[in-house]
User: Fold this.
Amino acid sequence: MDYFPIFLDLKNRHCSVIGGGEVASRRVSLLMDAGAEVTVFAPTVNSTIQRAVSDGKARHVAEEFIPEQLAGSTLVIAATDDPSVNRQVSDAARLRGIPVNVVDQPDLCTFIMPSIVDRSPVIIAVSTGGASPVLARQIRARLEALIPAGYGRLANLANRFRDTVKQRFKQPAQRRRFWEQVLQGRIAELVHTGQDSAAVAALQKKIESDDHNSSPLGEIYLVGGGPGDPDLLTFRALHLIQQADVVVYDRLVSAAVLDLVRRDAVRIYAGKERDHHVLPQEDINQLLVRLAKAGKRVVRLKGGDPFIFGRGGEEIDTLAAEGIPFQVVPGITAASGCAAYAGIPLTHRDYSQSVVFVTGHLKDGTVNLNWKALVQPNQTIVFYMGLLGLTTICRELIHHGMSPSTKAALVQQGTLPNQRVLVGNLETLPAIVEAAEVKAPTLIIVGEVVQLRERLNWFAPASPGAASGKES
Ligand code: SAH
Assistant:
């Protein structure tokens, strides 16, 4: 270990910052956040420092550096753009035994400043020992994504009830189990969704009633898993799938997204395969109710967004009727994901002022839609579940007045390495698709915006599957 990590209490401590530019001002803010009394020594300071000074939060001494300025300092930071001044500061601080940091000059430092994730009172500090500050920042960014914003409030809540819990549960093992349940369970979720007073009430109730045997009610999280690329998950979706007891998922959820599910979670496949559903909807609804009643935290993971052609509404309707707590986490719907990765803006000032999402699902061999409403100038139409009905869809659109030369695209497995995009017009697309042996899932986009792909196509998956068929 090159550096020994510690956290300093700087409240009401005198700290000196030498230098008054941008870099210095960032250090000043951090020190102020930690409750330090900051004095800035510099002939001139930037507007941020000026504001802090006029708000009475920091002091400014408009002088060149002299060693005497360091008297009484707990900590010194040098952030001038003059290397010789920085060296003088470092020498003077060392001579007086004051910890000193010189920005970007590790050899002049007696301590270095980590990249931090601030969820006060939770602070995560990352250091590469000066080897690569950029790498430290990247690690920090990953942690930022992993640690929900509410962790600080969660820590405060735990702190508030620490003594009470200690009184109530005498055995350390009991206490540990209690806190594990609280900090990962429903109470934590209430904090993460900003329902702090409900969290306090639930925690109080749990302290009074917890007998270690009762099985509390679980919770269902209806989560949108996005169109396939795991990087398109929301932070919240990732957080929930990594702590669920059970994950009930659909066919559309990509393998790459499933890979992110907590290793020891139970996975239940409830996928629908066009007309023969593996689990009838009613059974899925009942399964969720049963799991929640058994105290499980269940992620009901769906492709795309759960409220767009996802039957999400029906599933939580049953839960609501049974009084089971649930949350809904939106996902990137196939239309957004496929359009973005195909380089087809769904709206565009020159071509399309509205976009409609419709289902092209074939029922009794036909597609029942309000064709008149769909055939409008300057409108993009996105068909979900339209592959089998493609010929009918194109025919009806033409029949209801749309020009046969209107551009249309079919996106296969959008956002995934196997993405393929077939482009034609209302007249030609069915035959192009017929010849190309496409694989589900597929999305159809109709409208003038499709032509923009010629210029805006940016996603070039390196998969061999992308090589066949008539590409655009
Ligand atoms: N809730 C989902 C849609 C469910 S309906 C969402 O918001 O995206 C299923 C249909 O979505 C499929 O038939 C297909 O038309 C479309 N779809 C979902 N993921 C897709 C993908 N990666 N590529 C192309 N189409 C997709």
Q: What stands out?
A: Residues 227-228, 252, 302-305, 308-310, 333-334, 338, 384-385, 411, 413-415, 441-443 surround S-adenosyl-L-homocysteine (CB under 6 Å). The longest strand covers residues 219-224. The chain has four domains: 14-113, 150-209, 219-332, 339-456.
